[in-house]
């Protein structure tokens, strides 16, 4: 009989509510919510060879072993780039804290895609990074706060991708509704290149980085529609970044307007002012629509536009979520609105409602 899994950690998916595209710039805000679809990571000790298995990427797997303290990976490590980056950063911290490195098996299961493997756009890369970080911190008995674990996850993430804000990582780490501002990725890479230890960076205040709780809307329902058309966030964000100074694009004005919009949304949520919340959602939708037009990037696809317009017809406030280009749209709508009618119109347009609920907050953001 195989040994049971000693550690099991799950991390939730996320949805962007407002602030997309601007949040990739240092210090600019976004609002996100963690949702109750999960990536689960299980860990148990192994002997000479460790194994990583997953139901992601068509059931991919790899073996690894140690040469001294180094990981030696076989075969191709590409499907597990975020997992391996998370493993390496936790083990770097563990060595600095005097822990002996171990060999272990790690298994990943995900609820963030459909039965055919198409992703819903709920942040599977962030969730698997967070779940791996937390599971290995438990394996090595590292006494780190949630904020310090977030920093580990962000350091892992920038080893794999250049353009992410880290908001999805923060939502997956802390749960609930959060307001997030992005850290300075260039600064973090410079600190690493200069030889600063991981533990030193965990104790340092990071330029731009902040996470704060936001009050959930008390009498509004969050609806999520999936267009069944997966989108590439890195491609879309990279496209905007490469064109942000071209043509008639006033990018600094977009950033300023986005920040004002997110600030208004946070105030509306915290004050229970639904009209302010609706106005901020609609304003952010318009800002993103204009950004797409001026950069030539398709953020609001025809199906997402239909999702939004039908939600507005039924009394809700709606927009794309995340980078757009497919994936999901979100709606905030009164509980006494004609929600059944809205969902019926989505069904006729082949828009699938995702039955998602908020993953409740975990850990204090100040810890």
From TrEMBL:
Q: What is its EC number?
A: 2.7.4.2
Looking at the Swiss-Prot or TrEMBL record, what is one Pfam family this protein matches? GHMP_kinases_N
Residue ranges of every copy of the GHMP kinase C-terminal domain listed in the record: 267-347
Q: Which residues form the GHMP kinase N-terminal domain?
A: 89-176
Among SUPFAM superfamilies, the record links this protein to:
GHMP Kinase, C-terminal domain (SSF55060), Ribosomal protein S5 domain 2-like (SSF54211)
| Top-level taxonomic group | Bacteria
Q: Which GO terms describe its molecular function?
A: ATP binding; phosphomevalonate kinase activity
Which pathway does it operate in?
A: Isoprenoid biosynthesis; isopentenyl diphosphate biosynthesis via mevalonate pathway; isopentenyl diphosphate from (R)-mevalonate: step 2/3
Q: Which UniProt keywords apply?
A: ATP-binding, Kinase, Nucleotide-binding, Transferase
Task: Tell me the enzyme class.
Answer: transferase
Keyword Transmembrane tagged: no
Single GO BP term: isopentenyl diphosphate biosynthetic process, mevalonate pathway
Q: What is this protein called?
A: phosphomevalonate kinase
Q: What is the lineage of its organism?
A: Bacteria, Bacillati, Actinomycetota, Actinomycetes, Actinomycetales
